[in-house]
Design a protein that fits this description.
By secondary structure, the chain is of the alpha+beta class. Helices cover 27% and strands 24% of the residues. It has nine helices and 13 strands. A hairpin with an 8-residue loop joins β8 and β9. α1 packs across α8, α2 packs across α7 and α6 runs antiparallel to α8.
């Protein structure tokens, strides 16, 4: 079993965490665990493999991404844009049921929750709306992927924390892409991390809260929490994620997340090998005119 510690994929960084999970989706035999230092980093491992070389070898080309069921045009079906009628989504979902990338639909949208006014399906929390030419998630993925011009050089650099950053909006939910609000600082992303984070979404489908269709849409890992602050009690929807010490493949991570989600308290769980956990803290917009979205993190205390 060979392993590599990836200082560029830190657990408190939601995109870095999703990217590490995404590596196990991209490479079937890949395993993942996290160091137990103050800021845990991803450790990728596998039998008879160089983890970095495996990611490079499995890196998707543009044609593979364009063939995903969530692409704007797919197999002659009606085009997808940001606003998706439930009839269009349902047709795609039926035809893509046997496609290995069918998760790209179920992790971004759901027709179990439909707007009664316009018949449009609900989007995932990890598929936020954006301004202007920043469209739906697959469109953002293609833009980020285009920046990775030299995978053999770019991927190792990003995993080691020396990745080349480019001006872009990425997938649109990383708070660390945002510049200062005091000036016109541009948004910068690591495109390798953004692409891997997209694959990490395979483990986070969108459903509805409860068992009856028509309820509010909820993505796996997200929960509504109530808190009491200076302005009284309020509620918010937050994403929770853990760091664990045992090397797990995609299936193992999937199972761990299910068990950990059932814990009454979402901090460390030694019996599960979970030694730290976080929740999102969302970017506070500057008003109804501000379409900016982003998620930072807050560590959960024991």
């Amino acid at each position: 079993m060979s392993s590599v510690s990836c200082s560029g994929l830190q657990a408190p960084w939601v995109n870095g965490w999703l990217a590490a999970v995404g590596a196990t989706v991209l490479v079937k035999e890949m395993r993942l665990h996290w160091t137990e230092e103050a800021t845990p980093v991803a450790v990728l491992s596998g039998a008879d493999m160089d983890p970095v070389e495996e990611i490079v070898g499995c890196w998707p080309d543009r044609g593979q991404l364009e063939a995903m069921p969530v692409a704007e045009t797919w197999n002659g079906h009606a085009g997808l844009e940001r606003k998706v009628p439930w009839t269009v989504f349902s047709e795609r979902a039926r035809k893509a049921r046997a496609d290995p990338d069918s998760w790209t639909l179920s992790s971004t949208m759901t027709d179990l929750c439909v707007d009664p006014k316009n018949g449009e399906v609900a989007h995932a929390r990890f598929d936020p709306a954006g301004p202007g030419t920043i469209k739906w998630l697959h469109h953002r993925l293609m833009k980020a992927h285009a920046h990775v011009e030299r995978p053999r050089e770019d991927i190792p650099s990003s995993l080691m924390g020396r990745g080349r950053r480019v001006q872009d909006n990425g997938l649109g939910f990383d708070a660390f892409r945002l510049g200062s609000l005091a000036d016109d600082t541009k948004r910068w992303i690591d495109p390798v991390v953004e692409v891997l984070a997209f694959f990490g979404l395979a483990l986070f489908p969108v459903r509805v809260a409860g068992s009856v269709s028509g309820g509010p849409a909820i993505q796996r890992g997200w929960e509504r929490r109530s808190e009491r602050g200076s302005a009284g009690r309020s509620s918010s929807i937050e994403f929770f994620w853990p760091a664990w010490s045992k090397a797990l493949d995609r299936v193992g991570i999937d199972a761990l997340l299910d068990v950990w989600a059932g814990s009454r308290w979402k901090g460390s769980q030694p019996l599960l090998g979970v030694h730290a956990a976080w929740r999102t803290r969302r970017y506070l917009s500057r008003g109804s005119f501000d379409p900016t979205r982003g998620f930072a993190s807050e560590r959960l205390s024991p």
